[in-house]
Design goal:
Beta-Lactamase, Helix Hairpins, 5-stranded mixed sheet, 5-stranded antiparallel sheet, disordered C terminus, single chain, 3 domains, alpha+beta, Heat Shock Protein 90, 55% helix
Length: 484
């Protein structure tokens, strides 16, 4: 399988290259225009300066004076521009080139160009000036005026496009080398960080494949900050792995427990039946052993029925459509009445601590009835004869609380974390409850959790208390139970 970090690197490299390409195109286009605009501005300033100098010198010595010619040469050398002057008719009379090498003096500027200068006050074009230059150049022209405003001549400043862009091309080459270097460094860093970031993903993928083969012991190394995205992902994955491993252990334990629960009555039934059939059991004892077979068969039937009841009750409790508003106080009293005869036979006192105001809750009424019944059944079963069972109902922090407390043998501390597990029976239940299969409290917790609520148990100094919560209804109740 292709490594994750290579795919990540390829995607990153593509995005970086695309970004560099966009930036390069924009840089070349915008930069080229910026250079041309800057050169044009410089040429315009040079033309204005030459026009002022020529106006000042020309009034006394004329446009062909030696001093003006030296000024043109100086400006041309400092700016790299070609400069020449014309008279009012467009005849070139002075040039920045050396007089012996100048081929422009005596030539005439097209009348149309002069007309543009006169009408607009300036001239900024790319032109060869009607063949004056062998190639098109940037040309800027300004009129030379005297103090009265009359035109004494014209100044022309020009430069070749190649000369202007030459420096830009050199800079562009250097920029291209720098860009390639930065791109290479970015790719190296991207490869490094992509590999580093993808390593946990590779480990997660490898761990997932082991999960698929049933090995839930593998974990991903937590090297990242648990507060960032990758660290949070690793932490969540490891917690999921813990949950899967725990679920697998519970599944194995469930299979072992149910196998044990089924094997015991079936072995007893088969053994007694074989003894009766092969004559090992005397005729006068057959009735006794047939009763044992009947009892074990009924016990087996109860086990299967309880398992089916647990599955059905969990499904019903998880259905929001079955939830309604009902009076929890009334439900507690009704359930309590069904234990009156059992409590009397065991000489138990019952202390119902119920509020004056009725408490309305929203839940699955049948499922909550089963919860209260199972907890009371548990309390009556394990309470010491002559002791008291306390059933308390109250509201706190926006929830309804139900507490069932009995006095009897303390549940061992090591059993408390597992008291709600399927088929778990603590030592006290094993010694006192021969018929139980350990599904009652499991069903209680499943129903309460399906309502997104909690149940807890405390057992110390001979007192055991179960407390669970339920969501309050929006319906308010008065003392007599009527809606307000």
């Amino acid at each position: 399988m292709k490594s994750i970090y290579l795919r990540n690197f390829a995607a990153t490299a593509t995005m970086v290259a695309l970004c560099f390409l966009i930036i390069a195109v924009a840089f070349v286009g915008i930069g080229r225009q910026f250079v041309l605009d800057e050169y044009q501005t410089t040429m315009e300033k040079s033309a204005d300066e030459v026009a002022r100098v020529a106006s000042a010198i020309g009034e006394s010595d004329g446009l062909t004076s030696w001093a003006l010619s030296m000024n043109l040469s100086s400006i041309s050398n400092s700016t790299g521009n070609h400069v020449f002057l014309t008279d009012p008719e467009g005849l070139i009379v002075s040039c920045s080139d050396r007089a012996a090498l100048c081929e422009h003096i005596g030539r005439r500027i097209p009348a149309g160009v002069l007309a543009l200068v006169d009408s607009a006050g300036s001239y900024d074009e790319i032109s060869s000036l009607d063949g004056l230059y062998p190639k098109d150049r940037f040309v800027v022209a300004r009129p030379i005026t005297d103090r009265s405003g009359s035109t004494e001549g014209y100044v022309f400043v020009s430069n070749g496009i190649d000369s202007i862009l030459g420096a830009w091309s050199t800079f562009l080459g250097v920029a291209a080398l720098v860009t390639v270097g930065v791109f290479a460094a970015a790719m190296a860093l991207s490869l490094f960080y992509s590999k580093r970031m993808a390593r946990p993903l590779d480990e997660i993928a490898a761990a997932s494949r082991k999960f698929a083969r049933g090995d839930f012991s593998v974990r991903v190394r937590q090297e990242e900050d648990p507060t960032d995205e990758m660290g949070a992902l690793i932490d969540s994955f490891n917690k999921m792995a813990d949950s899967l491993e725990s679920a697998e252990e519970r599944r194995s334990e469930f299979i072992a427990n149910i196998s044990h629960e089924l094997r015991t009555p079936m072995t007893t039934i088969a053994g007694f039946a074989d003894g009766i059939l092969d004559g090992t059991i005397p005729k006068e004892d057959e009735e006794k052993y047939l009763r044992s077979i009947r009892d074990e068969t009924r016990r087996l039937s109860r086990l299967v029925r309880d398992m089916l009841d647990v599955s059905q009750m969990r499904q019903r409790a998880a259905d929001p459509a079955r939830r309604s508003d009902f009076d929890l106080t009334e439900l507690v009293l009704q359930t309590l009445l069904s234990f009156e005869s059992r409590a009397t036979r065991k000489n138990l006192d019952v202390d119902p601590q119920l509020p004056d105001n009725h408490i309305m809750v929203r839940a699955d009424k049948d499922a909550i009835t089963q919860v209260i019944y199972n907890l009371l059944d548990n309390a009556v079963k394990f309470a010491e004869p002559g002791s008291c069972i306390t059933l308390r109902l109250y509201k706190e922090d926006g929830k309804a609380y139900v507490s069932v407390k009995d006095r009897g043998e303390t549940i061992p501390e090591e059993d408390l974390p597992f008291i709600f597990d399927r088929f778990h029976k603590s030592d006290r239940s094993r010694s006192m409850d021969k018929d139980g299969v350990g599904l009652g409290l499991y069903l209680v917790k499943a129903i309460i959790n399906s309502h997104d609520e909690d149940i807890a148990v405390k057992s110390a100094d001979g007192t055991t208390e179960f407390v669970f919560t339920l969501p309050l209804s929006e319906i308010k109740q008065g003392k007599s139970g009527e809606r307000l």
